[in-house]
Amino acid sequence: MDERYDIIRTVRGPQYRYIRNFEPLKPYYQYMNTPEKGATMQEIRKKEASGQLDPVMALFSAHEKPVEELYDTHADPFEIHNLADDPAFSQRLSEMRDALSKWQNEIGDVGLIPEAEIEILEQDAGSRFAILQSTTKNSSTEKRLALLVDIATSASEGPAGIPKLLDALQNEDASIRYWAATGIGNIGPAATSTLKRVVESLNDPSPSVRIAAARAVAKLGSPEEALPVLEAELQSDHQWGRLAAAIVLDEMDEEARPALPSLQQALLNQPNKYIVRVANRAINELENTDHQVP
After folding, report:
1. CB-facing half-sphere around the CA of 259: CA atoms within 13 A
2. Are 118 and 110 in contact (CB under 8 A)?
3. Which of 172, 244, 165, 253 lies closest to 212 in space, CA to CA?
4. Nearest C-alpha neighbor of 282 from the set 265, 272, 235
5. How confident is the model at residue 170 (pLDDT cuts 50, 70, 90)?
6. Sign (positive/negative) of CA torsion 235, 236, 237, 242?
7. 190 vs 110: CA distance, rounded Å
8. What is the helix (H) or strand (E) element at residue 223, kind and residue range?
9. What residues does 10 pair with on adjacent strands?
10. Residue predicted with more confidence, 143 or 242
């Protein structure tokens, strides 16, 4: 999604389609520099601002997504009526949820690994293809992948998953720790009891985990502890970590104001255009400006 990230997976059968939104706190229409300049997105934004969206359009223009979606593609070919919360379809939902998990394990779903972490792993594996091969040919790695899929799934399931997420913060795999921190951030204030433990993850050796932990700490009510970490990551050697940090700062809105100088600095001598776009968007929001970047 250009300068933004989202993780969505889907499986379908002859009649039903199941969708899992692994990052439900993100809208379908994240702000992306290039499409926002186009006539279509400008019209959508205009309708949003004026409250003139029709009910169907409003579903896809919401600030958050449902965790799960289930559609009867025969009765509802445009996939408008989400059946995931309908008790009459609970068995179908469970079957397709299990099918998705099985498929992710079969293919070695490395898309669950944060991009900054992939960059680190390929240094040891020799290539990104080698990372994929290792997930499908090594039994111990297969077990780690199964746990990664499980924790990534738990990251969107609410407060009931807190014990599992806290345990996963101790895992040797950085990607699993990343999803554990992400899940606690997704829960937000209801997970305040985890704050002390998540603050410890601000010193994690993985940039992806540090950034996810900073996001969680901010959502748990301590943005002042999160900001120094995110500002430091804006200057790190990991370009995709710099992008992830910029995205978190952008999503923090007014809480990110103390980091404004760091965001402005991130625009300078920056080889990654995506980082420039996100930092510029955050600055525009904080300063009420409309500076355009390529």
Report:
1. 32
2. yes
3. 244
4. 265
5. very high
6. negative
7. 30
8. helix 223-233
9. 19
10. 242
Give the pTM. 0.94
**All domains of the chain, ordered by start, with CATH?**
8-92 (no CATH), 232-294 (1.25.10)
Q: How many CA atoms lie within 13 A of 237 on its CB side?
A: 4
How far is the C-alpha of 9 from the C-alpha of 103, rounded, in Å? 10
Q: Where are the alpha helices (DSSP H) in 108-161?
A: 115-125, 128-137, 139-154
Strand residue runs (E) in the chain: 8-12, 16-21, 68-72
201 neighbors 169 (Cβ within 8 angstroms): yes
Contact 282, 250 (CB under 8 A): yes
Chain CA centroid to CA 202, Å: 18
Contact present, 216 and 198 (Cβ < 8 Å) = yes
Tens of pLDDT, residues 35-79 = 999 999 999 999 999 999 999 999 999 999 999 999 999 999 999
- Could you tell me what percentage of the chain is helix, strand and coil, using 3-state DSSP and rounding each to the nearest 5? 65, 5, 30
Taking a C-beta distance cutoff of 8 angstroms, is the pair 26, 105 a contact?
no
Which one, of 255, 250, 181, 191, lies nearest residue 218 by Cα? 255
* Angle at the Cα of 191 from the Cα atoms of 186 and 196, rounded to 5 degrees: 110
DSSP class of 257? G
Instruction: Pull the structure tokens for residue 2.
Output: 């250009």
Q: Answer whether 92's CB lies under 8 Å from 70's CB.
A: yes
